[in-house]
Design brief:
single chain, about 200 residues, alpha+beta, Glutaredoxin, five-stranded mixed β-sheet, two-stranded antiparallel sheet, 6 helices
Length: about 200
C-alpha cells in the first residue's frame, strides 16, 4: 500500500512538473512586431502590472494618461506595466495605430489566445492585474479597477477618490497586504474566444 501511494505521489509530482514546464514555455502573446512575448518580468522587475484594454473602448482610452503617470512613478522601483489587448479585432496594425494616436509608450502584448485573460481572471476593459514577480514565477496579488472614477457606464466623477491600482502597486512594493478593489471595474466586456 505504501509503495502504491509513493508511486502515485511520484507520478503526480511528475505530471505537475511537466505541466509547469509546458506552461513556462508557452508565450504570453505577441508584441506589435509579431514576435512572441515569453517573459513579462525579467531582471530587476519586482512587480508586473497588466492593463487589459480594447482599442474601441472609450473607458479604456480615458485611462491612458493615468497609466502613463503610474509608469513614470513606479518604473524605477522595478515595476513593469503592460498594455494587454485580448479582443480578436485588436490586431497588430489596429493596436499600433491606437498606441500611436494615444501616445502609449508602455510595452504592449496582443493576447491572441487569451492566455493572460485566463491567468488574471479578468472580464472587462479596462481592468488591471498586479503580480508579484520572483524570477519566472508570477503570483497575482490584485485584480480589479484602476480607480473609482466611473460609477457606472456614462456616470463619471470629475476626479477619482480612490486610486485602487496605485495602492495595490505601492503595497506590493512595500511587502504589505494588498488592498483589494473597492468596487467592480466599469467598462467594456472582453470578447471571449470560442474553444
Amino acid at each position: 500500500m505504501r509503495i502504491c501511494l509513493l508511486r502515485i505521489t511520484t507520478l503526480l509530482c511528475f505530471v505537475v512538473s511537466a505541466c509547469a514546464l509546458l506552461h513556462a514555455n508557452e508565450p504570453y502573446g505577441l508584441n506589435l512586431q509579431g514576435a512572441t512575448v515569453q517573459e513579462l518580468g525579467g531582471p530587476g522587475i519586482r512587480v508586473v502590472v497588466l492593463i487589459f484594454a480594447a482599442s474601441d473602448c472609450p473607458i479604456s482610452n480615458r485611462y491612458v494618461p493615468e497609466i502613463a503617470r503610474l509608469n513614470r512613478e513606479f518604473t524605477r522601483q522595478g515595476v513593469r506595466i503592460w498594455w494587454v489587448f485580448p479582443n480578436p479585432e485588436d490586431n497588430s496594425s489596429t493596436v499600433a495605430e491606437h498606441n500611436h494616436a494615444f501616445a502609449i509608450t508602455e510595452p504592449t502584448v496582443l493576447d491572441i489566445r487569451q492566455h493572460l485573460v485566463h491567468l488574471a481572471h479578468v472580464t472587462t476593459t479596462p481592468e488591471a492585474a498586479v503580480f508579484r514577480s520572483s524570477g519566472d514565477v508570477l503570483r497575482e496579488v490584485y485584480r480589479g479597477r484602476i480607480d473609482d472614477r466611473y460609477l457606472s457606464i456614462g456616470q463619471e466623477r470629475p476626479q477619482p477618490q480612490q486610486h485602487d491600482l496605485e495602492a495595490a502597486i505601492s503595497a506590493t512594493l512595500a511587502d504589505k497586504p494588498v488592498p483589494q478593489s473597492g468596487g467592480p471595474p466599469i467598462g467594456c466586456s472582453i470578447v471571449s474566444l470560442q474553444k
